[in-house]
Each structure stands twice: as structure tokens, then as C-alpha cells.
Amino acid sequence: MTKLSAAFLKQCAQIVGKENILTGELSLALYSYDCSLSSTRPDGVVLIKEEAWLAPLITLLAKEKIPFVPRASATNHAGGCAPMNGGVILNLTHLNKILEINTQEGYAIVQPGVVNAQLQEKLAPLGFFYAPDPASARVCTIGGNLAQNASGARCMKYGATLDHILEANFVLPSGKEIVLSRKEPGPDLVGLLAGSEGTLGLITRLKVKILPQPKQVQTFLVSFPSLESSIQTVTDLVARGILPRCVEAMDQLTARTIEDFSHAGYPTDAPALLLFELDGNVQKIAQDAQALQQICKNNGALEFFSASTPQERKQLWAGRAVAYGAMARLSPNVMVGDGTVPRSALPLALKKIRHILEEYHLTASLLFHAGDGNFHPQIIFNAQHNTEVLRVKQALKQILQTCVDCGGTISGEHGIGVEKRALMAYQYDKPTLDLFSGIKQATDPDNLSNPLKILPIHYKETSAAQPSLRPEYLALQKVLQQNKPLHIVGSNSRLKTTDKNLLSANVLNQILDIDTENYTVTVQAGVFVKDFLSALKEKNLFCAVPPSKGTVGGLVAYGGAPQVYAHLLGVEALLADGSYVRYGGKYMKNAAGYPLTRLFAGSQGKFGLITQLTLRIFAMPQPSATEKPFVPFRYNDWTKEIKKKLDPKGVLL
After folding, report:
1. Residues 114, 143: Cα–Cα separation, whole Å
2. Which of 1, 168, 348, 601 is the most buried (most CB within 10 A)?
3. CA 553, CA 593: separation in Å to the nearest integer?
4. How does residue 1 score in pLDDT terms, banded at 50, 70 and 90?
5. 39 or 29: whose pLDDT is higher?
């Protein structure tokens, strides 16, 4: 029998219709699991067939204090759809309409249940495409992609899913409807949804960016004597200023298993394969292909194959798409890992991962989005054997800890859910986890929206130790701890306040690191933009930051160039109470926790003082954004609550 009261079911039926409420044992069993090992039974399932149902339904759930879990294709591998506190599953798969495609202005408006491949198929005849392309594109949904920030192989060139969402219609856990738009000044709230896994509310509609199809696409399959030499090839390619559309790496077991299953044309005698794709105009591809072939040769390539027909290209990528299914033929179960490290750390991470697999006597294929350092070990096992399940879990835990130890993250795109939440305390220190918790509490004080996900339960005792702060950060921290009202500024070139109660980042004036292996730069917030760009130019390096009179931190904080957000990989900041938080690093994908880069970008100092930033840099000039004039942002229902939680004393003016 369901735990939902008759009174609730009656009110629910008035909103959605009795036929769309499932409480039978079979239905509850079918909705008790996703693609992970987690399995918990909901108390009911509601089939959402109209957007208009969601706000009143969530208002009712909030009133009755009933937990709810949004769910569509449930392709995540971390237990993100498991209803840990029972409650109601909200099935969004019926919200699958493509409402508008506007090729002139470059956007499409879709409901969250639209399958990724469905949108691609509609765009193709129009000469357009949607850049995010998870391997499960034929099943996974656009809303789910944003909730997990699942981006797939094209992330290296085109950016993550959060960079392709222009607007989001959103229902807060209270039932309040809001529209989040990148056109509005203030924090990048659209970006803050990325990787939130339904813990902050429900996405009801999305406006996504679509791009013209490139004039030509060319696919290459190259074999190597080792995974290490294949990864070095990618590094060398980036150093030449070439950004492939996709770069996928795989080991011999993966290639053999895929070839046996799909006959994609993969060589099975090579220790490693790289699947490259270049796009652009014909002349540029010809130049890049020549450079690619030479770089592959320099790294000991065994065989270099270029797809000569669309069918050959399609066949090569069809093999990659079925990697999971191919491994599933070898054993009853497959556990898919998901971690990201800086690209330069991949060889070391691989060495450690192989050792872990050997130690636990496990068989796994190794598959990578080599361009962005995101890898997916696929471990085969039998879930009926408890000891084997335990070994798999222990091995994956150590693999993800290895990612953190190598300067990376425990999730690049599969999310945290319930199965990785304890590891969040291995990656993050207490102040940063407190900030994640504060965002959740401010948004969902009753913990009803996909509860018990992402945040570790006892992190105060187990969280990572915080490294020592630089002296200049300690000095600013002491000022904040006095709890006196302050305006945060850089050079004060945008705010132009005459108020004397200022906290300036001007003392933070160092470029801390220029990394030409991972093509990142770490810069303190008070460095002037002109000095920053000049330092890069001296090394023949480039960044998408536009010329500006102010500081790098000021440009990001006031939101003057939102296009830069896509190149913002990491942020460190001081909060109103002096707490010091860290997020991100020298890696392109991070789906571990709420994207703090997007909380601070455009926040105009209302949530904290940015101390340092890590940004992507390039070997070739990049299109430069046009700097926008300063416009103070106004708090909406969501940012008001976040402000109250993060700055209850109103220290930051």
C-alpha cells in the first residue's frame, strides 16, 4: 500500500488526472532504479503530460512536505533518480515537444523530455546542430543533460551543456515559477542549474543555442603503441592551435569488444586507438589534417585512417556509441566510472587506475574524452555476487580518489547522486561543502527536491583539509570577519562608488600560473586586464577575455562579458563571513557540486570576493567578446534567498 494519503491523492488527481498517478506495486518497482546499483521504492509516480501541471503540483507537494524526484530517461550512473526518502517520482518524459526552432537567431525552445538525438534529427535538414552530444544521445534528454551537465565528446571545442542553454523556465521547490535568462544582469543562474540533479527544483522548458553545421567534417581513426602516446598526441595538437571537434581514446579491450559487437572497422591488435574529428572549411581541415598526421607519426602512430565517405564516418562513430552495450555482453553488469583530470595528468592517472584494477582482480575497458581529460572506465561484474560488487565499489572509490589526487574531480558528466556523495568530502573542504549546503538550504529549506543527493551526510568530520591561505587572502579575510558593511571592488572602474567602505581586490595582482600543457592560466582577481593579456601575448598565448580598463576579477564579477564564462574553469573566493571556498581547476568538465564559477560570475560582489580565477588559454587568437556596460542586478525570488543564507548580516553591500 502506498504511504500517500487519500486526501493527497485526491488533490493530486485534480491537477493531473487520476489516470496519471501510479501507485501499483509493479509501477513502483519499475521506477525504483536507474542505471546505477541504487534501488529504492517511491511511494507514487506522477506522469507529467503538461508543463502547466508542475507548479501547482509542486506547490501541493511542498504543502504536504512530500519529497519528489524529477526523472526522464534515467540514464545517469550515480543513483541520481533513486527516491531515497520515498515520496513521488515526477516522470517528465511526456514533456517531449520541440516548441520552436529559429535558425535566423540561432535557438530552439524545447521541453525537458526532448531526447538529445531527436533535436539533432530535427536540426540536421535545416543545416544546424546542437553541440552537446553525450554517448547516450539516442536516449538521454535535454533537461537531463543540463541537470547532469552531461556534454559528451564535443566539449573540448564547443564547451559543456551549460554553455549552450540560453534560458530556462524553472519551478522552485516551493512551487514558485521563475524564468532564468542569460540576458539578465546578475549571477549566471542558468549555469548554476548545471549538475544540480534536480536538487534545486524542476526545469520545465529550455531555450538552447543551435549552431550552423560546419562546411565539412572529417573523421580519423589512429592506432598507437600505448594510451600514453595517444594522449601526448592530443596535447601536441592543442599546442599547434588545433581544436578537434571530438577526440575519443580507447584501450585495446574496448576496441576489441566494440569491433566484435558492431564491426565498426576498429583495429584489434593495437594497444590504443584515437578517434578524431575535425570540422570547419575545406582548406582549414586540409591544413589541420596534415598537421594531425605528422603529430601522430611523431608519437609513434601505428596506422592512420581517414574516413573517405559519410558511411565510413558514421560507422566509426556508431562503434563508439555502443561501447557500453558491447561491454554489457561480457558480463551481467557494467559499472561505468566518470572522473576528470587535467589532460597532462592522464598518463599518471591511467597508471594508477590500472594498478587499482589489478589489485582488485577486475576487468575494465578504458574509454576517454581525451581532449578534456574525462574518462569512463567500464568495469564488468555480476551484481548477484556480493563480494564482487564490494570489490567494484572499492575500486571505483579509489579510482575517483586518484582523480582528485591528480588535480581533478570525481565527476565530469555523470553526476554525484547518492553513490558518489561521500567522495565529495574527499574532493572539497568544509567551507566549500558548507557553501553547497547553503545553496541547497536557501533554495529548498524543507529538503524535498531530490533529497539526500550530492551532499555528503557527515562532511564536517570527514571533509578535505583546507590548504593554507596566501598572506594577502588572510588579510582580506580578517577585514570581512569584522562584519562591517562593505562594497567589493577591483579598481572601482565599473561601480565608481564614492563610499569609503570598500574592500578592494587590487592587492591581488599576480598571475600565478601559465600552464602550456593544459592550456590554462590562473590569475588573481586584481590583475588588470591589459597586463593579463600582455603577459599572455609575450608567450604567444591568447584568451577570450576582451580588452578592458578594469581588472580580470572585476570583469567576471560584474558580468561584463558573459561569453568568458565558458572559459572559466575554476574560482576561489572569500564569503561574507570570511570563509574561503575553492571550486574547479585545470580541467574542462566538473559535475561535482553546484557550479560556483557561475554563482560568482555576474554576482557583482554580493555573494563574495573573488580572489583568483582559472581560465582556458589558446595557442591561436580567439574571438573577443564585446564588453557590456555595467547594470546593477536586481534580486529575484531565488537570489534573495541565497543572499539571506550566504550573507545574513548584510555585510556585502
Report:
1. 8
2. 601
3. 22
4. very low
5. 29
Least trusted range by pLDDT, from 142-146, 410-414, 494-498, 608-612: 494-498
Going through 313-377 in order, the beta strands assigned E by DSSP cover 333-336, 339-340, 363-365, 367-369, 374-375
Domain residue extents for the chain: 6-91, 98-212, 216-325, 331-419, 423-462, 471-646
* C-alpha span between 296 and 249 (Å, rounded): 13
Domain 98-212 matches domain 331-419 at the CATH topology level: no
Residue 71 in contact with residue 91, Cβ under 8 Å? yes
Query: Which strands make up the sheet holding 98-102, listed edge to edge?
Result: 98-102, 107-110, 202-209, 165-171, 177-181
Nearest-angstrom CA–CA distance, 415 and 590? 9
**Torsion angle of the four alpha carbons 375, 569, 159, 183, in this order, in degrees rounded to the nearest 10:** 150
In terms of Cα–Cα distance, which of 550, 523, 549 is closest to 616? 523
Buried/exposed 524-560: b ≥16 CB within 10 Å, e otherwise: bbbbbbeebbeebeeeebbbbbbebebbbbbbbbbbb
Beta bridge partners of 224: 272
Structural fold of domain 98-212 = 3.30.465
Q: For 507-518, what is each residue's pLDDT tens digit?
A: 999 999 999 999
- End-to-end distance of the chain based on CA atoms, in angstroms? 53
Q: What is the DSSP string of 234-276?
A: HHHHHHTT---SEEEEEEHHHHHHHHHHH-----SSSSEEEEE
Region 367-380: what's the mean pLDDT?
A: 88
Closest to 346 (Cα-Cα) out of 253, 234, 255, 239: 234
| pTM score of the predicted model | 0.95
pLDDT at residue number 2? 57
Residue 610 has a CB neighbour count (10 Å cut-off) of 28
Domain 471-646, architecture per CATH: 2-Layer Sandwich (3.30)
Yes or no: domain 6-91 corresponds to CATH 3.30.70.20: no
Q: How far is it, in rounded angstroms, from Cα 405 to Cα 416?
A: 18
Would the pLDDT of 154 be above 50?
Answer: yes
Q: Decide if pLDDT at 643 tops 70.
A: yes
| Residue tagged 573523421 (cell numbers) | 219
408-450 confidence digits (pLDDT tens): 999 999 889 999 999 999 999 999 999 999 999 999 999 999 9
Dihedral angle of Cα 157, 158, 163, 169, to the nearest 10 degrees: -160
For 333, the grid coordinates are 553488469
Position 348, amino acid = L
Which class for 80: exposed (0-12), middle (13-18), buried (19 or more C-beta within 10 A)? buried
- Contact between 486 and 651 under an 8 Å Cβ cutoff? The reply is yes
Confidence of residue 471 (pLDDT cuts 50, 70, 90): very high
Q: Are 94 and 71 in contact (CB under 8 A)?
A: no
* pLDDT tens for each residue of 101-126: 999 999 999 999 999 999 999 999 99
Contact yes or no for 372/365 (Cβ under 8 A):
no
Backbone angles phi and psi of 247, in degrees to 5: -140, 115
Alpha-carbon distance of 492 to 479, in angstroms, equals 18
Cβ neighbours for 381, distance < 8 A, ≥ 6 positions apart: 331, 332, 333, 334, 335, 362, 388, 389, 391, 392
Q: pLDDT at position 475, please?
A: 95
The amino acid at 391: R
Q: How confident is the model at residue 630 (pLDDT cuts 50, 70, 90)?
A: confident
**Domain 216-325 annotated CATH 3.40.50.720:** no
pLDDT at 624: 75
pLDDT of residue 76: 83
